[in-house]
Amino acid sequence: MMQSVLLRSKITVPTVSKEAIERRPLMDLLKQRERSKLTIVRAPAGYGKTTLLSQWANLSEDWIAWLSLDEADSDPIRFWKYVIRAVSDSLQGDMDRKLSSLLQSQPQLPLDMLVDSFLNELMAVQVTIRIVLDDYHLINNERIHEMMTRFIDYLPGHVHVYIASRADSSLPIYKWAVKGWLTEINMEELLFTIEETARYYEMRKLVIKDDEQLQRILAKTEGWAAGIQLAGLSMEASSKDNWKMNSFTESHAFISDIFLKEILSRLPQSTQDFLITTSILHQLEPAVCDALTHRSDSEEMLLELEKNGLFIIRLHTATSVFRYHHLFTDILQAELRKRYSQEMITSIYKKAATILYELGDIHSAIELALNGHSYADAEAWIHIHIVELFFSGQTSTFIRWIRTLQRADCPLHPETLVMYAFTLALSGKWESASQVIESLANRHETDQWMDQPVYKIVSRGWVTVKVYVLFAGGGNLEEAIELMREKLKGGLVNSKWDGIPVQYNRVEPKLLRTSIGSLGKLWPDEKVLPFYELFRTSAYKDQNMTGFSYGLRAETLYEKNQIDDALPELEEALRYGHRFQNPGLFVPMYIMKSRIYVTRRQFVQAHALLDYTIDMVKDWHWSTNVYAVKAQYLLLEGSAREAEQALYKMTNESVQSGNPLWLLVHTRILIAKGLLEDAIRIVIQVKEKALSEGQISTIVEAAVLEAICQMKLLNADTALPALHEALEHGSLYGYVRTFLDEPEVPSLLRKYVKKRKREHRDVWDTVPLAYVEHLLESVPEEEEQDPALKMLTLSERKVLILLSSGASNIEIASELGLTEGTVRVYLTNIYQKLGVNSRTQAVLFAREREL
Question: Among 173, 189, 205, which residue terminates a domain?
Answer without folding.
Answer: 189
